[in-house]
Amino acid sequence: MKHVFDPLPISYFTIKEKLEELAQKNNYIDIWTYYQLCVDKDVNEQGEQDRLLRFLHDLGTVLSFNDPESPYSLRETSVLNPEWVTDGVYKILNDKQMAKHGGVLSRKELKQALKNRKYPEKYHPFIIDMMRKFELCFTVQENEKWLVAELLPKSEPKKLREDAKALTFRYHYDVLPPGIACRFIVRRYENLTTKPIYWRSGVVLKVEECRVLVRSDTDKGRMFISVTGPENGRRSALAVVRDEFDRIHATIPNLEPKKIVPLPDDPKVEVEYDHLLTLEKEGVREFIPQGAKQPYSVATLLNGIEDPLDREFGRFHLYPPFFEILPGEESFADAWEIFCCDMLNRHEKTTEIVRRKAPEGGIDLLWRKKKRAYQCKSVIDPATNRFDVFKAVESIKTALTKRKETVWKKFYICSNVDITGPQEKKLREACPKVDLKLLTPSFWLPRCREQHAYLHSRFSELKRPHERY
Fold this sequence. Notes:
Layout: H1 10-23, E1 28-30, H2 31-40, H3 46-59, E2 63-64, E3 77-79, H4 82-93, H5 96-100, E4 104-106, H6 107-113, H7 124-133, E5 137-141, E6 145-148, E7 167-172, H8 180-187, E8 192-199, E9 202-207, E10 210-217, E11 222-228, H9 231-250, E12 258-263, E13 266-272, H10 273-281, E14 286-287, E15 296-297, H11 298-305, H12 308-317, H13 332-348, E16 354-355, E17 365-367, E18 372-377, H14 389-401, H15 403-406, E19 410-415, H16 421-430, E20 435-439, H17 441-450
Parallel strand pairs: 18-19, 19-20
Antiparallel strand pairs: 1-3, 2-3, 4-6, 5-6, 7-11, 7-12, 8-9, 9-10, 10-11, 12-13, 14-15, 16-17, 17-18
Helix pairs in contact: 8-9, 10-11, 12-17, 14-16
């Protein structure tokens, strides 16, 4: 149990008791009041004050987002009564007027929902940030308008049909946790269609020039994904959606939904994705799925939902020895940064994304015209190393100090390994006001396929034909 054997000074207990006493009268205090309380009790060094605050947060004495050594946002508010936050959020979620407006929350309606004296107007942005943190809403117009997914219409739009020739994929849950579809909508808001189509249990997105229909059925415990559009973009679009659901699933303990591949000519017959991978590994070329009347090729079913090159890249190619450090590159980190810069320029059809010279100030690449900053994070051996969340947080915080100089609005982390759900949660908690985008293997692998002709010197496995069957 965390902190259970930590030796603690008497002054810590005194501060804890004082905060508990304050909680009887106040829902929150500002950070400077807390610091003064520490000084009054002879805890004078700010680093120690911040560590104590994190300790008190872990104990549940105070809900705080101030500790610079933890993946939480730097805030001026510490909450003594956590119910103050949850009650504020529920006031918004239970507002009937907003439900009538299709989930769109305006600044005026926010004031109306939180008109109680408990919620002074200066703390309204704090409540909104908490809702963003818990993936309950996203910004439509900065500081003026938000969309609350839980307040979207319940009914699916009429005439919304699934194309019989669509690329499909499904998730089967023992019990479908409430809110997964809403969280997915909030996380992929940037892919909404020009005229947004969404409801409480589904959404239509535009990904890789494809139309992606995502809908859930809570009663049956199913999530349905349907992709239509250019044949050469469908699998890449599906990869983006699957990666997002993997992240969401990873944040829910013990949630292990089955990944399902429907037969392309008979969608009622389904095969588990993991079973197909097992058959492929064992060298089985064909099998008869349960409920089918004819044999199917394992490779054809797998390759129908993901490019075989993507599978090989995912296993081998985005780190050494398959990812090669070329002459003139100082290290793998240097090579990864150069690779990211080159691939992003090719993908965006520009030459304006440039590397920054040291000291880069938390920003490795910059696209001034589009106001985008990029930080390149590489893991040389995923078997023994993991994505370093704390270094990434420090990079973002450093980049924030250079924001006026570089004029960036969106911050992208370019990683050669997957970022888990808990890791992403820590990143977003650390910087809730940053428009943060994650470019992980689900982004890079399709780009590698697109630029295959340019990559023969970069990837050792690409120096020979890449055919498995």
